[in-house]
Amino acid sequence: MLDIKHSQSQEVIKVNYFWLRDHCRCPRCYNVETKQRRYNLLDIPRDIKPENGGVKYLKDGLVLEVTWNDGHVSEYDIDFIFNSQVEKLIKRKSTSTLKTPWNLPIILQNERHSRFRFTDLVSSDVVVRDYVAALVRYGIAFIDDVPANTTMTEMAIRRAFPVMKTFFGEMFTFTDAADHADTAYSKEYLGSHTDNTYFCDAAGVQALHCLQHVNGEGGENFFVDGLHCALELKRRNPKAFELLTRVHLPAEYIEEGQHHIHSAPMIRLDPVTQEIIQLRLNVYDRAVFNTIPQGDMMEFYEAFCEFLEIVQSPDNQWRFKLYPGTVVVFDNWRVYHGRYSYTGSRTMTGCYVQRTDFLSKARVLGIID
């Protein structure tokens, strides 16, 4: 281990020799154009260490030069080394204010920050950044004044993100016709849920646009911030929260030509920072529950039911009618959505966005690290 001192903060950290050599950014080790390493890890000797007297501070202590015992010379930006440590990452995440957990009163106070006009979105990169930032902060955003057809809906989404293709297609249009083995293709009530719990990698973002609703009523949509609900469960019952982060709940989707199965916790945490990174809830797609012994079942069901009570509380449910012209875009890893039953004829269009594409855009725009 090498003791490295920051010249400005005077902080000292211990860094593993092999890690330090692995992070050499010289032209022989790192391609600055592709941002990729050039070498085989096995090229680094296991007993790598600095030569005697081979550690120097340059440029007023802002750069570290290391001459290694195999003759290689590396230079490091001191801030790069310090900012790359797991302790720094945890501290940055724990003080993050990027996300605003919300219940009904909070989101109503902030609704204006999540609404954007279609023409502004198309014409302004600044508006695109504000729109993506709203999705990061609240998990939900609206694009208003979108012509009520699938083509223009797709244009609105593609302004920021590529569209994800699934067996539903890229852009999907649906009514109550049973085109797929899914309750969404009906007029029935749909409780709070996330989509694709049966996929190995659920869509990160979803968009919905009501193209028409005639000769009937009902069908109001509602949204619930799963992040707020999970944090509330953690506050009320830490043991129940921990259980839902640990127990894998199986999900399944079956129709002709399709059979998807996946198991994962309802609340997924980052293994390093312990931040909540994904909420997963769909009582309709649950498969046979066979991931824990029968003796542990009641404890899990108690935790599950306590969480559902929070999710289904009217104080946490944002209910409104979707009308032609407004596209709602929401984080499928965070925000639960549902729908009341309806009568008449209703046509919806929408699509998914992969999680990696959503996060990539947010990074490119400087919204997240």
Automatic annotation (TrEMBL):
Enzyme class: oxidoreductase
Cofactors required: L-ascorbate; Fe(2+)
Iron recorded as keyword: yes
Domain Gamma-butyrobetaine hydroxylase-like N-terminal: 10-80
Pathway annotation: Amine and polyamine biosynthesis; carnitine biosynthesis
NCBIfam families linked: carnitine_TMLD
Protein name: Trimethyllysine dioxygenase, mitochondrial
Source species: Musca domestica (House fly)
